[in-house]
Structures are given as C-alpha cells and as structure tokens.
Amino acid sequence: MARVNLPVRAAALALPALALVLDRGLKFLARQGYGAGGPLLNFGLHLNPAGPFSLPLSNFALTLGGLLVLGVLSAAWYGSVVADRSTAALGFALMWVGGASNLMDRLVVGAVVDVLQVAGRLSLNLADCYLAFGLGLVLLCSRTRGVHEPSSPS
C-alpha cells in the first residue's frame, strides 16, 4: 500500500474545503437579497436553470451527470493524493468542489445560483472559477509530468 504524504493530504482537503465555504457563503448572501456593483461587475442573485454552455437538458439529467462526474473526480483526486502529486490533487479537488457546489444549487434551488454578472452578460459564481482553475492545474500537471519524474537508467 502506498504511503500518503500528510501535508499533501491536508492541503488537498483544507484548501478546497475553504473554497467551498466561500462559494456557499456568497451564494447564501445573494439568496438573502444582498447585492452591489456597477456597470462592469455586479454581485447579486442570478439563477441559471440551463446546463453547461446553455445546453437544454432536464434538471434530472444534469443532476445524474453531475453525480457521475463527481464520482470520477473523487477517484482521480484519490489517485493523485496516493501518488503524492499535490498540484494535480488540488486541481481535482477544486473541480470536485465546483461541481458539488453547483450540484447542491440544482438540488436545493432547481438552478445554479450565479452571484457575479460581468458587463451585464456573463453570469458566473466561484464554483465555475474553481472548475476552470482546477482543470488548468490538472492540465499543467499533465504537461509538466515528465519534467518531475526521475529518468530511468539506460
């Protein structure tokens, strides 16, 4: 059985947990009616009933798909922690947090709660940012993977 580096495990759990609390907190404030902003950036409640990229899927299909993706991300996160690949583990954990938070919205509200609106057109939340940033970390790890692995003897 592989040994897991404790600081890697702690970071892979603590940082995404903090990210989830921040996202859920902002969504709670928006649902309570708090709002602020100007012409470029607004904070407030914006409900998004559509799927990713505005796909017209039912809430049931989006929920089922979300649960399947969370299962895959859980396995990928665990594999990254066991392999002591902290950057990839953080990336998978951030994607899991983003997906889980948006899935919670779908189950509770029936739509994803977006709290930021940019230029009156683009609506998003921190969970969306976590998904994108986490994917970026995982892609960066896959791109630089060979650089960090020891070379095999010839």
Number of helices: 4
The structural class is: alpha+beta
Q: In which range does the helix fraction lie?
A: 55-70%
Q: Which regions are unreliable across 5 or more consecutive residues at pLDDT < 50?
A: 146-152
What count of structural domains? Answer: 1
**What Rg do the Cα atoms give?**
18 Å
End-to-end CA span: 28 Å
Q: How would you describe what is shown here?
A:
The chain is of the alpha+beta class and 154 residues long. Helices cover 62% and strands 13% of the residues. It has one domain (6-31, 41-144). The protein has helices at residues 6-31, 59-82, 86-108, 126-148, and strands at 36-37, 41-48, 112-118, 122-124. Strands 1-2-3-4 form a four-stranded antiparallel sheet. The longest helix has 26 residues, at 6-31. The protein starts with 5 loop residues before the first helix and ends in a 6-residue tail after the last helix. Residues 146-152 have low confidence and may be disordered.
Summarize this structure as a short list of keywords or feature phrases:
globular, 154 residues, 62% helix, disordered C terminus, 4-stranded antiparallel sheet, 4 strands, 4 helices, single chain, alpha+beta
